[in-house]
């Protein structure tokens, strides 16, 4: 019997979403949220489930009431079905119970593909909520309302969702763009200092691999950023988010089918350190440590100068990052280095680690000399010497 010819098929799907900037999103005088829903459909009473980070709910007393009041005032367009309050941070991603809780709410309230899940919280909660929304009915509409610096400038502006399992960050996940992202600057006012600072590391990351002028801006505003001045922070968030979104749209690989992940600069070690410290390290804190480890390695193999390394370290330290790798013995260091292989598995192809050859210019390598990386760890843990001559 003659073999049948294969049937070939190809199609293109266009995705579009917007990142909005506002203040006091659920004030009755603010029409933004209502307008976003009206822009989706002319139909009435769009069903919504809200899922809210417990810490955000606690620090912004009256938030649930404001949401209820806002939806009631716009009941011709919005039908609020339920508000879930759950723990934020990596707790929300480490336990499948919260995914199931949101899936139950989606099912119980008849949330369909033309309904919305609205997630308010940090990057971890938004990751989890996005994962649940993406697998329910093969995709429920999602609006992200990020409430931390890191989620407003990085975690919530992309197309990825995920939860942790097997001791590996984002092992389960989806690529599913949100319908919209809304950055409300008011949520930043109640952040702990650690969380205010932590998100700045992602801005430094994208500046180092893409935009030397942006790094100059951060360098010139380290004290203002550390002291919580809102104007430079607003610029930092917007520019960082723009660079991330431009990369997704223009980088040629929005769903990461290849092996190069420049936006994961510093992340192979960061993800492993988060797990090894039982997530006592914030993601942004781990990224700062991971970046400096890779920068130190880049210096040791001759990619960047000692002056460039010192300059970047000084910026991170002046903002307030502690850059010592919190590992006390050789066994722990070996465990950390196993993160290189885990990162390759996460990439799904050949190992590709992004370094830089100068500020603003990325440089991919496809192998890591683990002996030199051990030297980098030792050097990083003696930072007082590293920056003493700056």
Name a few traits of the molecule:
single chain, 390 residues, alpha/beta, two-stranded antiparallel ribbon, 10 strands, globular
In short:
By secondary structure, this protein is an alpha/beta fold.
Secondary structure layout plus pairing:
Layout: E1 18-22, H1 32-40, E2 46-53, H2 54-59, H3 63-73, E3 78-86, H4 91-94, H5 96-108, E4 116-121, H6 123-135, E5 141-146, H7 149-155, E6 160-165, E7 168-175, E8 180-184, H8 193-198, H9 200-210, H10 212-220, H11 222-226, H12 230-250, H13 267-276, H14 283-300, H15 306-319, H16 330-347, E9 353-358, E10 361-365, H17 370-380, H18 383-386
Helix pairs in contact: 5-6, 6-7, 7-9, 7-12, 9-10, 9-12, 9-14, 13-14, 13-16, 14-15, 14-17
How would you describe what is shown here?
This protein has 390 residues and is an alpha/beta fold. Helices cover 49% and strands 16% of the residues. The protein is built from 18 helices and 10 strands. A 6-stranded parallel β-sheet has the order 1-8-5-4-2-3, sandwiched between helices. A two-stranded antiparallel ribbon has the order 6-7. Strands 9-10 form a two-stranded antiparallel sheet. The longest helix is centred in the middle third of the chain and has 21 residues, at 230-250. The chain is globular. The protein starts with 17 loop residues before the first strand and ends with a helix. The mean pLDDT is 92.
């Amino acid at each position: 019997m003659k073999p049948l010819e294969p049937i070939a098929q190809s199609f293109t799907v266009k995705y579009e979403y917007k990142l909005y900037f506002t203040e006091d999103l659920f004030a009755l005088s603010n029409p933004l949220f209502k307008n976003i829903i009206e822009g989706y459909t002319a139909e009435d009473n769009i069903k919504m489930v809200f899922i809210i980070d417990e810490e955000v709910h606690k620090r912004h007393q009256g938030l649930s009431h404001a949401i209820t009041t806002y939806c009631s005032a716009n009941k011709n367009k919005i039908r609020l079905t339920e508000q879930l309050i759950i723990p934020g941070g990596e707790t929300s991603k480490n336990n499948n119970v919260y995914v199931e809780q949101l899936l139950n709410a989606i099912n119980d309230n008849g949330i369909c593909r033309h309904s919305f899940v609205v997630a308010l919280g940090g990057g971890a909660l938004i990751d989890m909520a996005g994962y649940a929304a993406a697998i329910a009915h093969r995709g429920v509409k999602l609006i992200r309302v990020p409430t931390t610096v890191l989620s407003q400038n990085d975690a919530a502006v992309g197309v990825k969702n995920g939860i942790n399992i097997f001791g590996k960050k984002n092992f389960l996940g989806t690529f599913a763009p949100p319908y919209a992202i809304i950055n409300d600057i008011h949520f930043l006012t109640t952040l702990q200092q650690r969380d205010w600072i932590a998100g700045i590391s992602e801005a430094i990351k994208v500046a180092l691999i893409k935009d030397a002028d942006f790094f100059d801006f951060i360098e010139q505003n380290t004290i203002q950023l550390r002291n919580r001045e809102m104007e430079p922070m607003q610029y930092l968030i917007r520019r960082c988010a723009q660079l991330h979104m431009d990369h997704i749209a223009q980088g040629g690989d929005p769903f990461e089918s290849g092996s190069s992940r420049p936006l994961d600069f510093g992340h192979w070690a960061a993800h492993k350190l988060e797990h090894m410290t039982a997530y006592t390290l914030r993601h942004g804190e781990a990224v700062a440590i991971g970046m400096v480890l890779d920068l130190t390695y880049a210096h040791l193999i001759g990619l960047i100068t000692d002056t460039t390394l010192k300059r970047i370290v000084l910026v991170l330290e002046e903002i307030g990052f502690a850059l010592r790798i919190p590992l006390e013995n050789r066994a722990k260091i070996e465990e950390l280095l196993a993160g290189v292989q885990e990162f390759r598995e996460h990439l799904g192809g050949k190992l590709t680690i992004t370094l830089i050859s100068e500020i603003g210019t990325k440089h991919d390598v496809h192998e890591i000399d683990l002996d030199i990386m051990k030297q980098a760890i030792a050097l990083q843990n003696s930072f007082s010497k590293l920056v003493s001559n700056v």
